Amino acid sequence: MTHLKTVLCGLLFIILFSRIEAKELRVLVSLAPYLEIVQKLGGKEIQVEVLLPQGADAHNYEPTPKQIQRYAESQVWFTLGECFEKRMQTALQNQNPTLVVCDLRTGIPLIQEEHPQHIGGYDPHIWMSPKLMILQAQTIATTLEQLFPTLEMKKEIQSNLAKLIIELEALDSEIQKEFAALHQTQSKVIVLVAHPAYSYFCREYGITQLSIEQEGKDPSAKELTSLLQEAKKLQIKTIFIQGPYPHKGAQLIAKEIGAHLVTLNPNSAHYFQMMRQIAAEFAQAASEVSQ
Known about the structure:
By secondary structure, the chain is an alpha/beta fold. Helix content is about 50%, strand content about 10%. It has helices at about 1-25, 35-40, 65-70, 85-95, 130-145, 150-185, 200-205, 220-235, 250-255, 270-285; strands at about 25-30, 45-50, 75-80, 100-105, 190-195, 205-210, 240, 260-265. Strands 2-1-3-4 form a 4-stranded parallel beta sheet. Strand 1, helix 2 (about 35-40) and strand 2 (about 45-50) form a beta-alpha-beta unit. Helix 6 (about 150-185) runs parallel beside helix 10. The radius of gyration is 22 Å and the shape is globular.
């Protein structure tokens, strides 16, 4: 009986230990849109932390030493080429040399920036396309599988990935339908934005993005005049803004042409809700543009 108790206690310890080990997997993502994606793949067995706080500017974000220390406790970090990542990687790997850094741009058809601002000179907003998010989800799932030692957890991740792909394909189909009617009636579907965060979304759904911000800065007087003339010509009624970027140019143009400002958050932690909102707002605004 004593031997049996010892065996049962040993088995219980192994089970509890394996669960603790699994739950200790800590994942770091650069931006909030990946929070929901990683959680859907890893479920309750992982802890996900977002590096860039809501409202912070990715171009000049600097975490505190205390934050660095906390972030460095992660086992894996999913990156995408944002400005702050290069200096952050050095700081994190100094604290944790075993940190796995996974670049989600691998295998993605990237958009090259005319005036490079981000790591590698490519637009990092790769989450703005559900089709590209499928490729990234596959990369995330493969990485998580490698970090989890149990076959049971690997199978769970594979099952979660299959479900997520179905969700993302449905989202893509939904957005395609959102713009189908516009493409039948307009030679160009155009939106005016303060910050050019929507290049991958626009490429995917055949939209022309006009950006007020130029080279990461407010436009010059000449650029502003040209954009103002174009906005008047197109009879644009809506300008899309987002924090934490300055809105002086957007406010000026809106005042001159009688347009209204609409705030979008492409860095929302609620990925599917965010994408549907952006699609609906863009479709509404584009339907008002003169052709």
